[in-house]
Design brief:
binds flavin-adenine dinucleotide; 4-stranded mixed sheet; about 230 residues; alpha+beta; FAD/NAD(P)-binding domain; D-Amino Acid Oxidase, Chain A, domain 2; 5 helices; single chain
Length: about 230
């Protein structure tokens, strides 16, 4: 979950002892929030990121060693431009910070049997790849068995979609690097703080947090847009 508070050009927020002010507050610093924080900081925005834990951590979705990525997203064609852009950003991060964030191993998806009617996930993936000109190969069961002898139990009706430019991401280093980079660009990061309440009043959004073992704190963002 990431909540982004958008700014208004007109309203102003002030900082006091228990109140921080910012153009943007990003609530939740998983994969989405960390990327948002970094991109905003890169654009020169005054941004604060809050997470209830110290990210990266195993209590959300952006943990463990790997997350699959591929360009033809069988879940829906609308994701294709997002994935393409995310891979551009990742390559840029790798170059800028000399980091190893993605294993470009290719992605193999195996279907149990080509459907005689309708469309299964593999068919949907193939259709999206064709629509968007995404490089891919269709593999017969025999070809799958030849190329991947380690896959025991393939049947004669199994078939495969292979996308050479897919692979897997390293979510924890990706989160960590973007938070560090955002901080270097001036972002404020508040870990171990739970956002309890978000209110909007008089052209300002106020985010009320409870820090673990700390007193409650507020972030004020000038806004007319809400969350
Ligand atoms: C087991 C698993 C396997 C997956 N495999 C894939 C895959 O192969 N490929 C793929 O593309 N996707 C995969 N996904 C999905 C992908 O990992 C998620 O879509 C993505 O990590 C979500 O990121 P997020 O930033 O939206 O959420 P999260 O990573 O969950 O981040 C949300 C953050 O908000 C913080 N938070 C929540 N409430 C508050 C609060 N009140 N105050 C302050 N902070 C708060 C949390 O602590 C957390 O850090 C997988 C997911 C899981 C769980």
């Amino acid at each position: 979950m990431t909540i982004l508070i958008k700014p208004s050009a007109t309203a102003k927020a002030t900082a006091t002892k228990d109140t921080l002010s910012a153009d943007f507050a990003v609530i939740g610093l998983g994969a989405v929030g960390a990327a948002t924080l970094y991109q905003l900081a890169k654009r020169g925005a005054k941004v604060i990121g809050v997470d209830r834990y110290l990210p990266p951590h195993p209590n959300g979705s952006s943990h463990e060693p790997a997350r699959v990525t591929r360009n033809a997203v069988g879940e829906g064609s609308a994701y294709v431009p997002l994935v393409r852009r995310s891979q551009e950003i990742l390559s840029d991060l790798e170059r800028t910070f000399n980091a190893d964030l993605m294993e470009r191993s290719g992605t193999l998806i195996i279907g149990a049997e080509r459907p005689t009617s309708g469309e299964d996930f593999v068919e949907a993936t193939v259709k999206i790849a064709q629509q968007h000109g995404i490089e891919h190969e269709l593999l017969s069961s025999a070809e799958l068995k030849r190329r991947y002898p380690q896959l025991i139990g393939l049947t004669d009706t199994d078939y495969g979609y292979f996308e050479p430019k897919g692979g897997f991401l390293r979510p924890e280093p990706i989160v960590s690097l973007q938070i560090t980079a955002a901080k270097q660009l001036g972002a404020t990061v508040i870990p171990n703080s739970v956002v309890k309440r978000i209110t909007q009043d008089n052209g300002r959004v106020t985010i009320v947090m409870d820090g673990i073992g700390a007193r409650s704190m507020r972030i004020c963002c000038p806004t007319r847009c809400g969350v």
